[in-house]
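Dataset card, provenance and construction

Sequences and ligand SMILES were collected as paired inputs. For each pair, a complete structure of the chain with the small molecule in place was predicted and serialized as structure tokens. The example below shows a pair involving flavin mononucleotide. Curators did not alter the output after generation; any descriptive sentences attached to a record were derived from the structure itself.
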Amino acid sequence: MKNFKPMAWMLPQPVLIIGTYNADGTPNAMNAAWAGQWDMHEIMISMGSHATTENLDRCPDFTVAFATADTMVAADYVGIESARKQPDKIMHTGWVSRKAEHVDAPVYDCFPMTLECRIKEKLYVSETGYYMVAEIVNIMCDESFLADDGKPDVEKMNLITFDPIHNGYLAIGDRIGNAFHDGNALK
Ligand SMILES: Cc1cc2nc3c(=O)[nH]c(=O)nc-3n(C[C@H](O)[C@H](O)[C@H](O)COP(=O)(O)O)c2cc1C
């Protein structure tokens, strides 16, 4: 085994697109990987100091879409460009947005699945950002990505994961097993 000093190498990491409205009402989006499920109806995201952070200080509502192979280039773009420098950021992505039904934030049409969220609590607030715990207000899934049982089918979505070790985006592959079940073979 080779040892490494502590790094942000938690694996796998998501590629989340956080949608908010800028002060002038234009839609914005940023890429976030340091995030996860917090509780049954809540998520957590580690927020640095960004235009998105300012937007969230004005309004606690946002959307979270899961990036796909098809949206990868634009997903990376919204992670390396700031609305502070480029007000037309979303125009460069080609994404079309509409206002979410349950929160005051944009939904981008090109993602299979999007969460509508509202900040519940900000933790360790400082000039460099905070950790936000947010309620999942609603979950939207494009009907073409539903499984036969009517629930979202992750296998159909071509989602991607962020590799923080070599700064890559990796395709999420096929289903290989059944959770809470296959381990029974070893009981
Ligand atoms: C792969 C990737 C992951 C990122 N993860 C985070 C994150 O978890 N938290 C964060 O605050 N910024 C993260 N960023 C940086 C923001 O997406 C970036 O600073 C963005 O330009 C902010 O846009 P805005 O200023 O328009 O809000 C990430 C960027 C990339 C490319």
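Derived descriptions for this record:
Residues 28, 30-35, 46-48, 50-52, 76, 79-84, 89, 162 surround flavin mononucleotide (CB under 6 Å).
Residues 72-80 form the longest helix (9 residues).
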